[in-house]
Amino acid sequence: MTPNLKVYQAFDRQLIADIAADDAEALERKLGLAARTFADRDGWLPAHRRMAILRRASELLSDNRDRFAVMIAREGGKPLTDAIIEVTRGIDGLVNAADELRNFGGKEIPMGLTAASMNRWAFTTKEPIGVVAAISAFNHPLNLIIHQIAPAVAVGCPVIVKPAATTPISCIEIVKLFWEAGLDERWCQTLITEDNVLAERLATDPRIAFMSFIGSAKVGWYLKSKLPPGTRCALEHGGAAPVIVDRSASIDAIVGTIVKGGYYHAGQVCVSAQRLFVHDDILATFTDALVAKVASLRVGDPTREETEVGPLILPRETERVASWIQEAIDAGARQFGGGRLSETTLLPSVLLNPPADAKVSRLEVFGPLTCIYGYSDVDDAIRIANSLPYAFQASVFSTDIAVALKAARHLDASAVLVNDHTAFRTDWMPFAGRRQSGYGVGGIPWTMEEMADDKMVVFNGVS
Question: Any idea where the domains of the chain sit in the sequence?
C-alpha cells in the first residue's frame, strides 16, 4: 500500500494535511487515459472551448484568491503579501493563455517561386504536441503550476502534473478549479508522490511528448538524458544572479529594489539577486545602506500580513545555507546580520567579499543572503559575473547610459534588467536559463509554442 503524503507548514512544521499518494498502478492508469484522450482527434477541444475554460478558471481563482494565498503561505512559507501577488499573477496568467489563442496560428508558405512549385497553395497550422508531463517546484506552488497547465490546456495537450512533495495542495486545488471550469479530468490530472522513481517514470514514459521540468539542475539534466527519442522538453533551473552597481547609481533610490530582489521569498527564487558587484567609490556607503535595509526586514510567520521574510522550505535547507555562510566567514568574509529564528527560518544576512571559491560565490544559495564584492573596472565585474557555468537574469544599476549599455551587451544572461532587480518577471515575457540554468523558453505564450507542432498543408492543382 502506498503511504499517504504528509504536508507540513514550512514555518513551524505543523501537519497541514495527510494526502492520498499515487502508486505505479495509478500512474499507469493516468498515462493510459491521457494517451487515449490525445489519440482521439475527434474529441479534441475546439479553441473557443479551451478559451472559455481558461477564462472561467481565472474567475474561479479570483473568487478564491484569499484561500489560495493562505494555502501558499502555509505550505510553501511565502509571506502572505507575496502569496497574494502570486495568486493575482495566476489569475492574469490564465487570461493571458486564453488571449494568446487569438493570435496562435500558422502562416502561408509561398509557392510558385520555382517552376516545380507552381499551382500549389501551402500553409501551416498549429497542433498540440501530445501528452505533457509537468514536474514542478515548491517555491511558487500555484503560479509555476499555472505556467505548465495553462499553456497545455490552451494548446490542447492532455497534461499530468506532479507538484513538489512539500507543496502539493495548491496544485491539487487549482486542478480542481479547472475541472469546475468545465475541463474534463482526462485533460488535466495530478500525480501526487514523493517517490522519485515514480516521477522519473512519468517523465520518461514513451507516451509523453513533452516534459516540462522546474527544479534542480541535477535532476532536470538527468531526466533530459533519459528521455526517449522524440520527446521534447523544457528545463527551468537556477543560478547565482549577478547585479552590477555602478558608481553613478543613486544608492537611496535602488537599495530597496535590490533588497526585494535578494530576499523575496527568503531568496528561494531561481533568479534571486545573489552576487552584488559594487563600484569601489560607493562600496562602503552602499554596504551600510544595504545592511541597514536588510536589518529592518520583518522576519517570521508567513501567514502574518506584516511578515516580509519567511522560512526556508525544510530544516535541512537552513542547515545547508548556514554551513555555506560559515564556510565563507571562516575564509575571511565579513558577515552582517544573520542567525536563526526557528528550525526553518534564518535571519537575513549580508556577506562582504566572500572568496571566489566559496560556495556562496559559485553556487545558487537559495536562501536569505546576498554577497557584496567591490570592483574598480566594470569589465572585471562583468568577467566575474560571467564566470559561472550557468546564466539566467542579470541586473545593472546605473544612470550612466554607456555603462548600462555595456553591461546589457556583455553580461551573459537571457535577460538584463537595467535599474531593476534580477527577480523581475511578467508571465508573458520569455523566461529562460542559459547553459546549465535551463533549456527551452518559459513564459506562457512561449511555452504554448513549445507545446505545439507546426503542420504544413499543401494543395496541388490550384489554378
Answer: 5-237+437-460, 241-418
> Could you tell me which residues are beta bridge partners of residue 117?
none
Report the predicted TM-score, pTM, of the whole model to 2 decimal places: 0.93
Q: What are phi and psi of 74, to 5 degrees?
A: -75, -55
Residues 298-308 have pLDDT tens digits of 999 999 999 99
Task: Please tell us whether the domain made up of 5-237+437-460 is placed in CATH 3.30.420.40.
Answer: no
Helix or strand holding residue 217 (H, E): helix 217-226
Distances (CA, A) of 456 to 112, 150, 448: 16, 25, 18
Looking at residue 130, what DSSP letter applies?
A: S
Task: Work out the mean pLDDT of the chain and round it to a whole number.
Answer: 96
- pLDDT tens across 167-199, in order? 999 999 999 999 999 999 999 999 999 999 999
Catalytic residues: 236, 270
The Cα 218–Cα 206 span in angstroms is 22
C-alpha cell at 61: 481563482
Say if domain 241-418 classifies as CATH 3.40.50.2300. Answer: no
pLDDT confidence of 461, banded at 50, 70, 90? confident
The three cell numbers locating residue 213: 521540468
In angstroms, the CA 138 to CA 303 distance is 17
Q: Strand 390-391 and strand 369-375: pairing?
A: unpaired
Cell of 375: 570592483
